[in-house]
Amino acid sequence: MQVPVDIAFHNIDSSDWAETMIRNRVADLERLFERITSCRVRVDQRAKSNGTSIPPVVRIEIGIPGRADLVVSHEPEHLQRKYQRPDLQKAINEAFRIAERQLVGLKEQRQGKTKAIYSDIQNQKLGQVAEVQPEQDFGYLVTSEGSLLYFHRNSVLAGDFDALGRGDELYYVEGVGDTGPIATKVRVKSAD
Known about the structure:
Structural class: alpha+beta
Distance between the termini: 46 Å
Strand order of the largest sheet: 7-6-5-9-10-8
Order of helices and strands: EHEEEHHEEEEEE
């Protein structure tokens, strides 16, 4: 790595075990993808609600030459759905698990191991945007059957996520996420 790892804690006390865990996980990322040039990790404890602590948010920004920074961040609700008692250790592990998965995908893409962009054409379906939350990096689309599917900003392969509006048509492939069915490989239908 060309730039030392940058770790910052906001609204939460720094701890030696957390910094050590983060540095070890960053070292794992470097072994997985050797072209990482920088890594910034932010741990943020948001306010408490109803007397209970909201799980911390771990945001990872990974610098890779030739592309925009790879950013991994999750909302506290994700941890609350996944774990009965979410804590800092689980938040760190979950953020780095997602980063590892994204780096493996990028590595495979660069090595030409991924399928061609339209190889999923037989599996793709047409849906419409039901709701978009650009500030939170996700949205929902309504399928032809009338059900709602979650999709993330990173799932949009073709088109501008920030320009999406209610009723816009999207092609997507249905996949399975951590909490159930989701829309993956989302492409905005071009206006013919």
